[in-house]
Design a protein that fits this description.
The chain has about 525 residues and is an alpha/beta fold. It contains 21 helices and 16 strands. About 45% of the residues lie in helices and about 15% in strands. The two termini are about 40 Å apart.
C-alpha cells in the first residue's frame, strides 16, 4: 500500500474504486508552414471547425451555463482574429495558428496571482482542444461511456470532459494539474464527486484497474490499499454522506450564533453563473462581484449598456445584497486589447482604483452602469486598493457626478446607494478610522492584505510557507479595521480566503466581523461553525 498526501482539496468527499486512467489522443499541432496560395484553404478549415464547435457548445450551453461562456469565447473576434492573422500574415497552418493563439490568450490568465483568475486559462485551453480535435478529425475519450464504478485519474480535465460524468459511476477525480477554483472543480462540487487536483506526477506509476482510496477532505490517496483500509474508507464515506445531508438541512437556518448574533453569509462571484450556483446555499447576498471578468472576457472595454445588462441581471438574481467591486485590473490581471507598460513590480504599480481614476471616462461608464442597476436590487459599490482619503474622495465625487447626470437624463437609480471600500493595504489599515467616517462599509481583502503586510509573495514557493493570515500582524490589523468600522457604526465584512476557512470563524467572530463572504462551496461549513458558537 502506498499513501500520497495532497494539499489541494477541490471537492470534499471520500471514495474507493478502481482507477480509470484518462489519456487524450495527440492534439499537438502539425508544425509545417504554408504557401500564400494555401492560405485561404487553411482559413476555410478554421471556419468549418468554428461552426462545428459553435454548434456543439450551443447544445451544451442549454444544460450548463459554463458552456455559454465557452461559446462566447469561441465566437469572439479576438480569438478568431488571432488565428486568422497568424494564417494570413505568418503563413502558419491552421493547427499551429490555433495552438499559438490559444496559448497566448491562456498565458494572460496563467500569469495572474489570483487563483480564481488563473484557472480561467483552463477554459481557454478546453476550447482550443475542442477546435483541435475537429481540425485533426480525432475523437476525444468520452467519460459518459463509463458504466462501472471508477476513480478517474488524469493529467488534467476540462469542463467539456467533466460535465459528461455520471456520478453513479464516477466516484472520484484525481488530476496531476489544475486548481481548486477551476470550472472542473466547480462542476465536481455541484455533482458531489470528490476531487483532488494538482497532486503532481501520478499517472506513470498507475495502471488501469488498480484499486484506489481517496479522502478529499483530508487530502489523502491510498494506492493498492489492503482490505482493512478499504473497509475504513467505506465507513468514512458513509459518515461523510450523513454529514453532507445534515449540512444541507442547516441551509434553512440563518447564520445566527447560539447567543443571538446574526452574521451575514455571502458569496464571492465572477459572473451570473456563479450567482446561480451560490443561491441554493441560502446566502444573504453577494459580498464580492468581480467586475473585471466583464473586461477580461471581452475584446473591448464593455459599454455602459453591456455592463448595465449584466449588473441588472445580477441584482435581480440576488436582490438581498450585491456588492460590485469596481474594475480591479493591473498587477497580475491584464486585458488582451489594452497595453500595460512593463512594470518592475506590478503589484505595487498601476492597478485597480489607480487605473480607474486615471481613465475617468472608462470609470464613469462603469459607475453609471452600476448606478442604473441599483434600481433593481440592493446594489452596493466597492472601491479596491484605496490608500488615501484623496483617492476615496475623488472616486466619490465622480460617483456623485454620475448620479447628477442620470438624474438629468431621467434614469432610475438608488439615490441612497451604499459606497464602501476594500481594506487590503497597510496604508488603509493605518487610516481605517479616517476612512470609516466617509464610507458605508468596509470589506477586508485578506489575500492582498496578508501579502502586503508580511512582504510575502504567496505565489513564490520558496517563501509561501511564511504566508499566513493567522500571523499576529495580520490578526492585529483585522482587529484594528473592525474596531474602526464599529466605532463609526458601519458594517465590516471580509471577502478574502480567510472568510471561508472554518478554522478562522471563532477568531473572526471574537473580533466582531459582521459579514463572511467566500466561495459558495464553503458556505455550509461556515454556517455550521457560526450556529454552534
Amino acid at each position: 500500500m502506498r499513501q500520497i498526501t495532497v494539499e489541494k482539496t477541490s471537492s470534499r468527499g471520500i471514495a474507493a474504486a478502481p482507477a480509470y486512467l484518462y489519456q487524450e489522443p495527440d492534439l499537438s499541432a502539425a508544425a509545417y508552414c504554408i504557401t500564400e496560395e494555401q492560405t485561404e484553404n487553411e482559413v476555410q478549415l478554421f471556419e468549418k471547425a468554428k461552426q462545428k464547435v459553435s454548434d456543439e457548445l450551443k447544445l451544451l450551453a442549454e444544460k450548463n451555463q459554463i458552456f455559454a461562456a465557452h461559446l462566447e469565447i469561441a465566437e469572439d473576434f479576438t480569438f478568431s482574429d488571432g488565428v486568422l492573422s497568424r494564417i494570413r500574415n505568418e503563413q502558419k497552418n491552421v493547427q499551429l495558428a490555433l495552438q499559438d493563439t490559444v496559448e497566448e490568450l491562456a498565458l494572460i490568465f496563467d500569469s495572474m496571482d489570483d487563483p480564481y483568475m488563473k484557472e480561467r486559462a483552463a477554459d481557454i485551453r478546453d476550447i482550443g482542444k475542442r477546435f483541435m480535435a475537429q481540425l485533426k478529425g480525432v475523437q476525444r475519450p468520452d467519460l459518459a461511456q463509463i458504466s462501472r464504478e471508477v476513480i478517474v485519474v488524469a493529467k488534467d480535465l476540462f469542463p467539456s470532459d467533466t460535465v459528461k460524468m455520471n456520478p453513479t459511476y464516477i466516484k472520484g477525480i484525481i488530476t496531476e494539474e489544475g486548481g481548486i477554483t477551476s470550472h472542473v472543480s466547480i462542476i465536481a462540487r455541484s455533482m458531489g464527486i470528490p476531487a483532488l487536483v494538482g497532486v503532481g506526477k501520478l499517472l506513470d506509476s498507475l495502471q488501469n484497474g488498480i484499486e484506489i482510496c481517496m479522502d478529499a477532505e483530508a487530502g489523502m490517496i491510498c494506492i493498492e490499499p489492503d482490505h482493512d483500509t478499504i473497509r475504513e474508507f467505506l465507513q468514512k464515506q458513509e459518515d461523510f454522506e450523513k454529514r453532507q445531508s445534515y449540512l444541507k438541512k442547516l441551509r434553512s437556518q440563518p447564520a445566527v450564533t447560539r447567543d443571538g448574533k446574526r452574521i451575514s453569509l455571502c458569496a464571492n462571484v465572477g459572473n451570473l453563473e456563479d450567482i446561480e450556483r451560490a443561491l441554493p446555499m441560502n446566502i444573504d447576498g453577494i459580498g464580492l462581484f468581480r467586475s473585471e471578468f466583464l473586461y477580461m472576457e471581452n475584446d473591448h472595454f464593455p459599454s455602459e449598456e453591456e455592463q448595465f445588462q449584466v449588473y441588472k441581471a445580477a441584482a435581480e438574481l440576488c436582490p438581498k445584497e450585491l456588492t460590485i467591486r469596481t474594475l480591479d485590473i493591473g498587477g497580475d490581471k491584464e486585458l488582451s486589447y489594452f497595453d500595460f507598460d512593463k512594470e518592475e513590480n506590478p503589484f505595487l504599480g498601476w492597478r485597480a482604483i489607480r487605473i480607474s481614476l486615471d481613465m475617468e471616462d472608462m470609470f464613469k461608464t462603469q459607475l453609471r452602469a452600476i448606478l442604473r442597476a441599483s434600481a433593481f436590487g440592493h446594489v452596493r459599490i466597492m472601491f479596491p486598493m484605496i490608500i488615501s482619503l484623496e483617492e476615496l474622495r475623488a472616486a466619490g465625487k465622480l460617483t456623485t457626478r454620475c448620479m447628477e447626470e442620470l438624474e438629468q437624463e431621467g434614469l432610475e437609480f438608488d439615490r441612497n446607494i451604499e459606497i464602501g471600500m476594500m481594506i487590503e493595504t497597510p496604508a488603509s489599515v493605518m487610516l481605517a478610522e479616517e476612512f470609516a467616517k466617509e464610507v458605508d462599509f468596509f470589506s477586508i481583502g485578506t489575500n492582498d492584505l496578508t501579502q502586503y503586510l508580511l512582504a510575502v509573495d504567496r505565489g513564490n514557493r520558496k517563501v509561501a510557507d511564511r504566508y499566513s493570515y493567522f500571523h499576529p500582524a495580520v490578526v492585529k490589523a483585522i482587529a484594528k479595521i473592525i474596531a474602526a468600522g464599529h466605532k463609526e457604526n458601519i458594517k465590516v465584512g471580509m471577502c478574502g480566503e480567510m472568510a471561508g476557512d472554518p478554522d478562522a470563524v471563532l477568531l473572526l467572530l471574537d473580533l466582531g466581523l459582521d459579514e463572511f463572504s467566500m466561495s459558495a462551496g464553503n458556505a455550509d461549513y461556515i454556517r455550521e461553525k457560526i450556529l454552534n458558537l
